[in-house]
Amino acid sequence: MKTFVYVPDDLFALFPKQDLEGFSEPALSDATDRPFLVRPAAPREVKSIQLGTDAILDLACLILAAIRTGNDIESLYPVYGEGKTIFLVRLLRMAGIINEDNLPVTEVAQLFLQKERTSALLQLVQVWVESAIFNELSEIPELTVDKLFRFDPHATRRQIISALSNTQGTGWLSFQGFSAAIRQEWPEFLRDQSENTAWLIRNSVHSAFRDWENIEAVYLRYLLNGPCFWLGLVDISAPARTQDGGEQDISAFRVNWYGRKVLAAVTRREPLTGVRPSAVEKQPPSVTIDGRIMVGRAVSRILRYHIARFCEWEKIQPDRWQFRITPLSLRKAKNASLKVRAFLNMLKRACGNALPGSLTDAITQWDQSDTQATMFEATVLTVTNPDWVVTLLNSKDSSKWIERQLNANTLLIKPKGEDAVRRVLIEIGVLTDKQM
């Protein structure tokens, strides 16, 4: 008959090693390699459903392109969410895809973008689960953690992820039920309630810092509603939408079929088999004669990455991006030592005969001779007396606003220059009429 004795960590460290024979810390796999029972969600908890996807891979493609082109990553917040975007930037850095200077490591980034979607997502999941650097507690706005608090983010994350991997069934599970099951199984997984250090984590919204719901449950909610959902491992649900259109806190979740496969591969080292990517990246981009390029999730990420580097970004949506080829975008690409000819050849291979020939000719011509035509906004001014045109050209107040003289009686006026030109004309006794 075995006898088990619990020794607190601080006392355990004080014993000489020879006195600790027979004692050992419980292995994580021993504690979690068994079914983890959670109460099924009630119908009222499953109302507003959001399905987990691998769309984080598309965001990764945009982030890498944004860094290369100088586009502001913050512009992606309204489309993909600030928390998700910041999380992914850190994940890419931990994976070695971005270096410490926040620049893509070219070869590593290229390989990542060329990976089949399932393998690429598995790479990100593994980096997150095994990271000793990423600290979920510091990412939760309502929690304040004192520097004196001792916390192993890797071990804690692995413990909860393993429990999540061993939940049973394919239906919706109650978040409150999951929190209660964790509390019953590992009540002190985050902090020892009996120690004085319990107060070192505080909830800035709720003052009862010792309450499980205000600390541990908040951590679990972030884990499920944040990284697990962003990485496509779980689907989540809220009771209903609020009156202002915002989402309530997560009330239910389910580990989807894809999530179970990936979690098993990460936590139990099982081979990842039978998983098909959500989007097969074999579709060509859509290119119009005016230089617009539309790409969806079925266009390969490596091609999307290069398109984003050679084009202006017109409209970014979660499942559809719109770019445009312009002399400015091509010039920026050239200044970054990119080859326009290589980009054009890439488009030809991807689009074939669907690539407009006149656009191809125009890009080739530009590459050889730079800009040959310029379009700009201006106001057309016509006068009955050519002497007035001479006066405007010679006046220091109006000359700087004149874009070009078209003929003896006509000038093109730069935007915002209308008032200055009008004043000069009044000084010589001419009233100006404006027609739309």
Short structural description:
With 436 residues, the protein is α+β, with helices and mostly antiparallel strands. The chain contains 17 helices and 13 strands. A hairpin with a 2-residue loop joins strand 9 (312-317) and strand 10.
Structural category: alpha+beta
> Which parts are unreliable, with pLDDT below 50 for 5 consecutive residues or more?
1-15, 17-32
Question: Per the principal axes of the C-alpha atoms, what is the gross shape?
Answer: elongated
Question: Could you give the distance between the termini?
Answer: 97 Å
Biggest sheet overview: 4 strands, antiparallel
Overall mean pLDDT: 83
Q: What's the count of strands?
A: 13
Which strand order do you get reading across the main beta sheet? 1-5-6-3
Number of helices: 17
How much of the sequence lies in strands comes to 5-15%
Helix content: 40-55%
Radius of gyration: 31 Å
Order of secondary-structure elements: HHEHHHHHEHEHEHEEHEEHEEHHHEHEEH
- By oligomeric state, this entry counts as single chain
Key terms for this structure?
436 residues; alpha+beta; four-stranded antiparallel sheet; 17 helices; elongated; disordered N terminus
Describe the structure.
The protein is of the alpha+beta class and 436 residues long. Helix content is 40%, strand content 12%. It contains 17 helices and 13 strands. Strands 1-5-6-3 form a four-stranded antiparallel sheet. Helix 3 (56-69) packs across helix 5 (82-94) and helix 3 packs parallel to helix 12 (301-310). The longest helix is centred in the middle third of the chain and has 15 residues, at 216-230. The N and C termini lie far apart (97 Å). Mean pLDDT is 83; it is low at 1-15 and 17-32.
